[in-house]
Design a protein that fits this description.
The longest helix has 33 residues. The chain has 13 helices and twelve strands. The protein has a five-stranded mixed barrel with strand order 8-9-10-12-11. A three-stranded antiparallel beta sheet has the order 1-6-7. The protein has a two-stranded antiparallel ribbon with strand order 2-3. 37% of the residues lie in helices and 24% in strands. The chain folds into four domains: 123 residues, no CATH class; 44 residues, no CATH class; 91 residues, Beta Barrel (OB fold (Dihydrolipoamide Acetyltransferase, E2P)); 66 residues, no CATH class. The N and C termini lie far apart (103 Å).
Length: 394
């Protein structure tokens, strides 16, 4: 098939930039960075359509309008009957015939006809144009498209995760500030941990099925000795400086009553080895009680007492719990040789506790000091014997 040689003034090599004026820019629908981007400058009826609600609350689509001169979009130009060059169109360059996504409309001044050029071709022939308005609109379209796709992706991931965990979607709809935060994290990251899933079910169940309210009973008065649980601990500023006030919840067959007053120093001395965790601790107090604002509320003065049990969340990291479990000597040994070597030392010690080892240490101690040890350790526990032997060799 024979080719027809072009003779139009827009052919490559014959184009004179001074003979063209810029009309506007446009972009075809495409996908950039994985996000679908709609067209811009092709049809104003679609580019500027909007949704509005009527008096009944129903939404209606209202199409955009073209400029009176039609020089707003490709469809507007064709509707006004402008004459176009015959070698290209939207998406195909009138000069070189190459396909493009982002292009311009230019007017050939001598004849008034319009032609389509891709941005690369326009730059090649030094057809300079101010595309700032078009680029601004395209930036907004890209951002809006990316936001919509990300929103859809997160919704899909949210639904998939909830589908894998029965009842999670219903649990996250319950009104609770922690559940609202878990719901936000699941929408943002697409997943939450197994512990957070269990927490969501637990909180939702607590909200739906709240525990029965405590039946209040009358608070006694006068000097009393009682056992209870510390429900709150707060610092109060008074005329003699700050003081720590505690509220103790006491459960009796007649009901629950509360005692409020200054925390005894003995409680803090005991709590120092438990991270000062007093809230939730079980205590036994002796104090003088007087009636408060409610029949089940009493104010205690000059309280004294002791902590019976601490509410340590991680007993393996609590000094007081470890001392109670291991004994003071073993705990000091653990701190001395380090946590990571402790298990290894424990296994080694089990093989060393025999009479021969103890006798050898006894002889070494006598030779080192020139006298026998002041106390016979044979009645002590193996932990204590080994600790003293280890200490003596330092």
């Amino acid at each position: 098939m024979a080719r027809t040689k072009r003779s139009d003034p827009h052919r490559p090599g014959a184009l004179v930039p001074a003979h063209y004026t810029y009309v506007f820019s446009f972009s075809l629908a495409s996908s950039e960075g994985g996000w679908p981007v709609p067209s811009e400058g092709i049809n104003c009826a679609l580019d500027y359509r909007r949704w509005e609600k009527d008096a009944d609350g129903k939404e209606h689509c209202i199409n955009g309008e073209h400029r009176p001169d039609g020089e707003c979009c490709v469809v507007g130009l064709r509707g006004k009957g402008f004459r176009f060059a015959r070698n290209g169109g939207p998406g195909k360059c009138d000069v070189c015939g190459a396909h493009y996504i982002h292009g311009d409309v230019w007017r050939y001044v001598p004849t008034g006809e319009l032609l389509f050029l891709g941005h690369d071709c326009a730059a090649k022939y030094e057809l300079l144009a101010d595309r700032s308005a078009h680029e601004l609109r395209m930036g907004r379209l890209r951002a809006a498209a990316a936001a919509q796709c990300e929103k859809a992706r997160r919704a899909e991931a949210y639904a998939a995760f909830c589908g894998e965990h029965a009842g999670l979607a219903e649990a996250l709809e319950v009104e609770h500030y922690i559940l609202l935060d878990l719901k936000r994290k699941l929408r943002e990251y697409g997943e939450i941990s197994d512990k957070q899933v269990a927490l969501a079910h637990k909180l939702a169940d607590e909200v739906k099925n709240p525990p029965p309210a405590d039946m209040h009973g009358p608070a006694p008065t006068g000097k009393q000795t009682f056992r209870g649980t510390i429900g709150s601990k707060k610092t109060h500023e008074g005329g003699y400086g700050p003081s720590v006030k505690i509220t103790v919840k006491v459960t009796t067959p007649a009901g629950v009553w509360l005692a409020w007053g200054t925390a005894p120093q003995a409680l803090f001395d005991q709590a120092s080895k438990h991270g000062y965790r007093l809230k939730g601790a079980e205590v036994e107090l002796t104090a003088t009680l007087k009636a408060g604002r409610d029949p089940h509320f009493a104010i205690m003065s000059r309280p004294r007492g002791t902590v019976l049990a601490f509410p340590c969340e991680k007993p393996e990291d609590c000094e007081g719990c470890l001392r109670a479990k291991m004994g003071d000597a073993a705990y000091e040994l653990q701190q001395f040789i380090g946590h990571q070597r402790f298990e290894e030392e424990q296994a080694r010690r089990r093989g060393l506790f025999d009479q021969a080892v103890y006798a050898q240490w006894f002889a070494d101690e006598a030779e080192r000091t020139g006298r026998l040890p002041a106390a016979d350790l044979s009645g002590r526990t193996p932990d204590y014997v080994w600790y003293r032997a280890h200490e003596g060799r330092q």
